[in-house]
Amino acid sequence: MSPEVDERWMRRAIEVARKGWGTTHPNPLVGAVLADREQILAEGYHEVAGGPHAEVQALRQWEGVVPDSATLYVTLEPCSTVGRTPACTQAIIDAGIKRVVVGALDDDARHRGKGLEILRSAGIAATAGVLEQDCEDLNLIFHFFHRTGRAMIAAKVATTIDGRTAVEGGASKWITGEKSRANVHQWRRYFPAIAVGARTAIADDPSLTSRLGPKDFCPVRIIFDRTGRLVNFPNLRVLTDKFRDKTVIFVSDEAYDKVRKVVSDEVRVVRCPGEGEIRDFLLGWLANEGLHGIYVEGGSVLHSRLFAEQAVDYLFAYRAPKLFLDDRARPVAGGRYLEDPSEAITLEDCRHEIFGSDQLLRGRICYPVGKERS
């Protein structure tokens, strides 16, 4: 099969995988396409954790004998162990498929490379690496978790050209346009948890939900409020809406009692340490909750503290074609003192997207050499 044909059907498999966007955590998004040269025979995707995998879904659609000339395209290496579902490698072998093309290898140590080995041992021509980067990008959280053993902390910023996120008083609605904000809602649907600082919660009164499609989706919503400022704003949406049982407030020991007395019993209040200890606390809390990723939307004080602890792993940076040119306006973050540009925090594996007049740059955070933490 030509590389062009393989890439075409892998792109289709990626599109199919996206149908499971936000519903598979902690499992990955996976799409599968069974094609015979220029024709799609069947396709499937992983819909929900614990449900049938993409390969099985596709094979169930096809009735009869699979042609010898057919190829199964899968965005992620087929699993090779029995868990809540049977091994996909065995389903592929039993279906009589002669060729399998994989996008990205599975970073789960139980499966990495083993699925391909099993298929090849069964006489199946199995290859990997077709549109590998695009397939890996489907599963930022999954790959990060299995490579590092911990949750991914992602930060989101929306700025003017001169890097401002809000005016001095905190007003930020709206710096970016509707299409950028719709994309933010897509990522809110992808991440199982979202966080903001108390100042942002008070200034914007956000719902922190994903409002796409017929139903709103609410991730776990974390508000960093060490001093207990939210007690003066008991009617905020995150404290009173129908999803308030998804809200968690991180407070200091001193503020715990006053916050606990004011907010609804359905809202969780959790004691959180101060500066210098936030990263380890947050990662431990996420691990205990079984959450493999968090999307931190600001504001600048919270971002500054996270960057100071080298806690941010991934950045979503939306930029609008606007200029404030106001030194009093709020920056993305601050607190670092550089003597040379080589000390800058950089992004790698970058992706560039356009939403109306806005730009999105997203990528993996890399801290200056010699100053990284694990």
Overall description:
The protein is α/β, with parallel strands linked by helices and 374 residues long. It folds into 2 domains: 3-141, Cytidine Deaminase, domain 2 (3-Layer(aba) Sandwich), CATH 3.40.140.10; 150-366, 3-Layer(aba) Sandwich (Dihydrofolate Reductase, subunit A). 29% of the residues lie in helices and 24% in strands. The chain is built from 12 helices and 16 strands. The protein has helices spanning 3-17, 54-61, 88-94, 114-121, 132-137, 140-148, 178-190, 198-204, 237-240, 253-262, 278-289, 300-308, and strands at 31-36, 39-45, 71-76, 99-104, 125-128, 152-159, 164-166, 193-197, 220-224, 247-251, 268-271, 293-296, 314-319, 330-331, 346-355, 358-366. The strands form 3 sheets. The protein has a 9-stranded mixed beta sheet with strand order 11-10-9-8-12-6-13-16-15. It has a 5-stranded mixed beta sheet with strand order 2-1-3-4-5, sandwiched between helices. A two-stranded antiparallel sheet has the order 7-14. A hairpin with a 2-residue loop joins β15 and β16 (358-366). α3 (88-94) runs parallel beside α4 (114-121). The longest helix has 15 residues, at 3-17. The radius of gyration is 23 Å and the shape is elongated. It starts with a helix and ends in an 8-residue tail after the last strand. The mean pLDDT is 92.
Salient structural properties:
16 strands, 2 domains, riboflavin biosynthesis, 5-amino-6-(5-phosphoribosylamino)uracil reductase activity, Cytidine Deaminase, domain 2, alpha/beta, single chain, 374 residues, metal-binding, five-stranded mixed β-sheet, DHFR-like_dom_sf, Dihydrofolate Reductase, subunit A, nine-stranded mixed β-sheet
